[in-house]
Each structure stands twice: as C-alpha cells, then as structure tokens.
Design goal:
The complex is a heterodimer of chains A (about 550) and B (about 230). Chain A is mainly alpha-helical. Chain A has 27 helices and 5 strands. Chain A is about 70% helix and about 5% strand. Classes of the chains: A mainly alpha (about 550), B alpha+beta (about 230).
Chain lengths: ~550, ~230
C-alpha cells in the first residue's frame, strides 16, 4: 500500500516526540500529515478534514489520554470507522488500550519503536481497512446494518486473512439487529475452537439479550478470573449487575478502576455509590472525575451535580454549593447549564433547610424547563429537585415527558426509576413508568392498525401530534413519516405531506441515527418523493460503530 | 525500598531506550562515512537491547510479587507476531555471535503452522520478550544452529519452541527444584520470567500455559525451551 497517497493526523503533546514520529512517518512515505498538540486542536482538525490515518500518543497531558480521546471522537462521530487509528503507548498504557475492546484502536505500538516497525504496522492496519471497507461503509449513522451483515458474509466467503475480525464485527451487528440467537451461535462456535476474551464477552451479551442474565453474569465472572484486565467484561458485568444489585455493580466498577481509571468509570462509580448511599465514596469518585481532567473534554455537568449531591447528603452544605458554583465556571454558559445548576442548588438548600432559597432556585430551573429542549439528565435533575421541594406532580410531569420521549431507551428509563427511588417512591415509580411505556407502545400499535385498516388520516393525526411533541422519539417520528408517505402513495402526490415526512425523518435521524427502522423509512421516502421534494442524504455524515 | 528499586529499574529502562536511539544515530553517522555497518555499534546495540529486555523481565517479576502485573490478552495474528519477533531479534541479537564450532550461528525458523491457526489470544508484548530472551540464550549456547518453531498443540493451545544444538540445559536446571535453581543460574532470570508469563495465561475453562525445558533439541542433547499457551 502506498502511504504517499494517504493523509494522516499526528497527535502528541510532546514537541520532541512529535518531531521524531513525524520524521518516521515521512520516511515510511506518509508525507501529507497534519499535527495536533492537544485534544482541542485534534478535534478541530478532525471536524474540518477527513483522514486515512490517525497516529495518537496515549499520554496527551492535562489528565487526558488517547483512549478517552478515541472514545470521545467516536461518540461525537468525528472519526469514521474507515479511518485507521494507531495508538502509541508506553508500557502501562498498552494494557488499558488493548483491553478496552469496545472502542479499541486498530493497533497500538509500544515505545520505543523503529521507523521500520512503525511502517510495518501502518501497512498492516491500512490493508485491514481496505479489505473491510465494504463493512465500514455501512457502519453507524446512515449505514444499513442489513447491508453490513451481507458484506460480512461476503467477506467470510472469500476467506481473507481477516475472517476473524469480520466474525467479531458480524457478532456485534447481529446483537445490534436484535438477533441474539445467531450471535450466540457465532460466539459459541468461535469459543469451541479456542478461548478468546472478545468472544466470551460477546457470548455474555447475547445471553443478556435473550434475557438469561444469570448465565451472562456467571460467564462474565469466569471471563474475569481468566482475563482479570479485560475492561469490556467489567463494563458489561457492572451494567448487568446494576439492574438488580447496585452494591455488586459498584464493587465491579471499583475493580475496573484499578485496571483503568477513566473519567467515565469514575462517573459510573460515583453514581452507583450515590444510589447505594455510599456518599463518601461518591464524593471521592466525582472529585477525581472533575479534578483529573484538566482539558474539560471528558467531564460533564453530571460530575459536578454528582459531587454536589455527595456533599449535600453528608451535610457539607458549603462544599456542595461550591461544587454547584464550580459547574458554572467549568462549562460555557447555556440555558441547560443554568437549569442544572439551579436544580442542584435547590436540592442543597432543601437539605440545609433554606426553604426560600430552595424555592427560588427551583423556580429558576422550572422556568427553563418550560421552554423545553433540555437533555435527559438535566430534566431528571429538575424532577428530582421537584420531589425534594415538595412538588411531586411537577416531578411526575417532567419524568413522563422524558419517558415518553425515550421509551425505547432502557438506560434513560433506569435513570428515571432512580429518581423515583431516591425520592422514596420506588414502587409508584415502577408502576408509573410501566404505564407510560405501555401507553407509547399502544399509541404506535393503534396507529399502525389504523393505517393498515386504511384510516391513514387518523393515524397521521395521532402520530404527528406525538412526533411534534416528542422530538427525541425516533420510532414515533419514523412511523409518522411512513404514514404520511403511505397516504401520498395511496391518494396521490402532495408536496406538503412529503415535506412534513422529510421533517420527521430528519428528526428521527437527530434522535437516533442508528434506529433499526430508519434505513427502511429513508428508502421509502426516496421511492415516493418527487424531484422537487427536499433531498434526504445522510450517508455523507460521519459514521460510528454498530 | 522496593518501590524505589522498581522506580530505578523503570528509569534505567528508559535511559537504555535513549541509549539505543543514540547508537542508531551513531550507526547512521557511520554509514555516511563507510559503506559497511560498524560491527562494534551493532554489538553495542545488541547489548543495550539485552539489558533493556532484562529490565522488562525484572520489572514484570517485581510487579508480579506486588500483585500488580497485568496481562493484556487479546487476539494477535500469529504470522505478524512472529515476523515482529524475528525483526526485533535481528536488531537486538548479536548477529555476529560465534557458535561453539567457531562459525556464525544460524537461526532457523518454521512458522508454517501459523497459517492454519491464524490468530490467538495472548499478551504479545510479554511473550515476545520471553521468546527473544530464549533465542538469545540459544544462540549463546549453540554450536552451529538454533531454531524457533511454532506449533498447534493437539489438545488445544499453541506452542513456541526454541532449540539449539549446544550442550543442553545443565543438570541443576533440569532437576525439579526449578525456582531456586533458576534464580542462581546465568539464564535464571529469563527462565523465571518465561515461567511466570506462561502460567499467568489462562482460559475461563481453567487451562493454563506452561514452560517446559528438555534436552531433546536440535542434535542429541541440545536444549529445548517450550512455551505453551492455552
């Protein structure tokens, strides 16, 4: 493979190291190579350009590391799967990078290395990207999972040397497509040939998807005795245990932190400790999360809110208020930030017995909430403040909105449950959220039945009302668009309706670009829409993993 | 005190890396003056690499004692891995090593079984050091030839064999009390390290790796180092 035709980005905070690697890259033929000194520069470069290859040092200074950076840019969709990512690490970094599994780099290289070694590794990963490009093209937003699966099968038939990698990706697609039986068969066949940690974790995830949580937990525990540093196994195990036993989940995250102390894991430790009433430990975890990351790219409002609550629950009002204030100083001002801060402060004041201050802060938060557009965590924080401030009806109204908007998202529903539980309404919360969920399912089913029975106008009215209200519910938006397109198909062209369908599909894409029904709906639109209708092109967007 | 020792080892390893960079630089300067490579610099490079490998091993043993040695077990393409091992061995082994018969030692390889096995899950970084050390040892003891072979184990598992045609392992290593004997022989560090790395590889089903030593290597009585991974 000719590196002279490729473009690269080199990320390293040490000037000497950057200069050395730059020369080694040029010697290997990669002459078109931009450089970034820190995460901000790297993100700017990735936003503006498309690269074939990223070479990134693990240690990026200011509490940032290459693994967290990789996870960040994949989540933000700044790094398509077709771009190769090579991590350069020292001896300790490589363990954390190579066992992250879910978002691991294509390869990692231990320092010191020669120009020859670097060149060999680059050739290998670019060859891999080239061979698997038919799959990568279909990965993530705008991609079609069915086509990706077909590409996997085609490559498996060709028996390339990358068959194993293809199997690994195929397993992930099968899980994402909700076909756990096939995924399980794939992993089990793999494991019959040999033991390997990714297939063990995949097997557990397939069992979990089949509802066999106990078997999955047992499997993951066995994985961890054989591979005690396999981070993906800890993450999956903590997630599973968290459903029923948050204390056990906390213990698992504690163990994972000893292997790799990412901001993300500190955060999940902190929030589990809060749920478990282990406020001292929660304080420590959130403290590390906010202090360690001096770049500000990895921490979130959640970390300061969690820290403030940990203090407040221990009666440390002064420290809690300071943490809430810090939140405001560490992020750019926005209505979301102001609402979150106010909701957090209100709860601190309730706890300290300052009724007036609590009421004033809550009023401020609710004023922002009224305008809409807040993210899940901020809305739930306000709901929590409502419960604390003696406004349970307001709290339920907010939670209902969140649950309707995200009725397909278990993680969001779990967080909503936690808000009820923290306020002492655990059972009522379960019932409330269950009813909300069923109502959404019924709405979708009723509308689909109406449409099938030919009453498209009634179906459209129902779905459009819901879609206009629930901007984050991809399924509702997709169904609304499909009902509109069906009407056009049956009753003749109406550009207004096509345009409305376009709006709902864009809304669905924003809400969940990877919704399994989205690709089919987009194709339907393309078949029905006339030339003068707004075009629907998402495939040019950056893609992320399955 | 122990932590101090670990820190000192770590620093020394980094200094050795820097030394390696300067030796490579000196080799480049030499190349500008002469068409041949400098054997003295090659030799110096090999010594730096040997020392550096020994420090990696020491550090791993130290961490194991502290309970903080962490293996990174992931899939690796075996052909790529062995290509890397051989290319590093060319950089770090004394290429001019003279065998017992007064001639340069020839290193043979047989990696044909990698094609069938393809990939395997193991800690490539640590296993590579174990193999490089074994190769270095074999070349030191060989009369004419040493060999690195890859094989699939019949009951599942993979095996790396390093053999030579030298006099074989001395009796004290072959006798049972390996731990204590190993630590007093000249190749003790490498063997202790290899043993540790082998046994730290495990599967969820409970199988473990192992190191076995025998004197049925190339020619009658030559040493054979077999590292099996589950």
């Amino acid at each position: 493979m000719d590196l002279r035709t490729k473009t690269g980005l080199l990320i390293d905070d040490m000037p000497e190291m950057r200069a050395t690697v730059r020369i080694q890259l040029a010697n290997a033929g990669l002459e078109k190579c931009d450089q970034a000194r820190n995460i901000k520069e790297a993100i700017d470069k990735l936003s503006a350009n498309r690269y074939d290859l990223i070479v990134c040092d693990y240690n990026l200074g200011y509490g940032a590391d290459g693994q967290q950076f990789l996870e960040l840019v994949r989540r933000k969709r700044l790094l398509p799967m077709s771009t190769a990512f090579l991590m350069i690490t020292g001896e300790t970094g490589y363990q954390q990078v190579s066992t992250a599994a879910e978002m691991c780099p294509d390869d990692y290289l231990l320092k010191p290395f020669t120009a020859d070694t670097l060149s060999t590794r680059l050739q290998r990963i670019l060859e891999n990207k080239e061979t698997l490009k038919t799959i990568y093209k279909q990965m993530g937003a705008g991609g079609d999972r069915e086509k990706a699966l077909a590409a996997c099968n085609a490559l498996l038939e060709q028996k390339t040397r990358y068959s194993l990698e293809v199997l690994r990706i195929k397993g992930e697609f099968l899980l994402a497509l909700g076909r756990p039986d096939e995924a399980l068969a794939l992993y089990q066949e793999m494991l019959q040939q040999r033991a390997t940690p990714w297939a063990e974790v995949g097997r557990a995830l397939a069992l979990m998807a089949k509802g066999k949580d106990d078997e999955a937990i047992k499997g993951l525990q066995q994985v961890l005795t054989a591979y005690p540093n396999y981070l993906a196994a800890y993450d999956s195990l903590a997630q599973l245990l968290g459903k029923t036993d948050k204390a056990a989940a906390q213990a698992v995250v504690e163990r994972a932190l000893k292997v790799s102390a990412s901001t993300q894991r500190q955060r999940s430790l902190g929030s589990l400790a809060l749920d478990n009433g282990d406020f001292g430990r929660a304080e420590e975890a959130f403290r590390v999360a906010v202090d360690r990351d001096r770049t500000g790219f990895f921490k979130s409002h959640d970390d300061y809110a969690g820290l403030a609550r940990s203090y407040a629950e221990q009666g440390k009002t002064k420290e809690a208020l300071a943490a809430a204030k810090d939140m405001g100083q560490n992020f750019p001002a926005s209505p979301t930030l102001a609402a979150r801060q106010a909701a957090v402060e209100s709860q601190i004041h309730v706890r300290a017995g300052n009724r007036d201050a609590a009421a004033a802060a809550l009023a401020k938060a609710l004023a922002v909430q009224e305008k809409g557009g807040l993210d899940v965590n901020t809305s739930l924080e306000i709901a929590q403040a409502c419960f604390a401030g003696g406004k349970p009806d307001e709290a339920k109204k907010i939670i209902q909105g969140v649950a309707e908007d995200h009725h397909e998202n278990d993680q969001v529903l779990d967080r909503a449950h936690n808000v009820f539980a923290a306020a002492g309404f655990k059972d009522e919360g379960v019932e409330f959220l269950d009813m909300t969920y069923k109502r959404m399912v019924r709405l979708n089913n009723d509308a689909v039945s109406l449409a099938k029975a030919g009453d498209l106008d009634k179906a459209i009215t129902m779905l459009a009302e819901a879609a206009d209200r629930l901007h984050n519910n991809a399924q509702i938006a997709i169904n609304a668009a499909q009902a509109l397109l069906m009407r056009v198909q049956v009753q003749g062209m109406d550009l207004g309706l096509v345009t409305q369908a376009h709006r709902y599909l864009s809304q669905a894409y924003q809400a969940n670009a990877e919704h399994p029904k989205l690709v089919g709906a987009i194709e339907f639109y393309k078949r029905v829409a006339p030339v003068q209708a707004p075009p629907l092109e998402f495939s040019s967007m950056h893609a992320i993993g399955p | 005190m122990d932590a101090l020792v670990a820190a000192a080892i770590h620093d020394a390893k980094n200094e050795l890396s820097a030394l390696g960079v300067w030796i490579a630089e000196a080799q480049r300067e030499f190349a500008a003056l002469s068409p041949a490579r400098s054997p003295a610099l090659d030799r110096a490079m090999a010594i730096a690499a040997t020392l550096s490998g020994q420090l990696v091993e020491l550090l791993a043993l130290y961490r194991s004692g502290e309970g903080s040695l962490r293996l990174a077990v992931e899939d690796h393409y075996l052909d790529d891995f062995l290509t890397d091992v051989m290319s590093e061995s060319h950089q770090s082994l004394p290429t001019a090593e003279i065998g017992g018969d007064g001639a340069k030692v020839q290193v043979l390889t047989n990696f044909s079984a990698t094609q069938e096995v393809g990939t395997w899950a193991f800690d490539a970084y640590l296993v590579k050091f174990a193999l490089l050390d074994a190769l270095r040892n074999a070349m030191r003891k060989a009369r004419q030839r040493a060999r690195l072979t890859f094989a699939a184990e019949p009951g599942g598992g993979i095996r790396f064999d390093v053999e030579d045609d030298g006099p074989g392992y001395p009796d004290d290593i072959m006798r049972g009390k390996r731990e204590t004997e190993m630590s007093t022989s000249s190749s003790g560090l490498g063997l202790t390290f290899a043993q540790l790395i082998a046994t730290r590889h495990a599967t969820p089903a409970g199988r473990r790796g192992q190191l076995s030593l025998s004197n049925d290597g190339m020619s009658a009585g030559g040493a054979r180092f077999s590292l099996t991974l589950p």
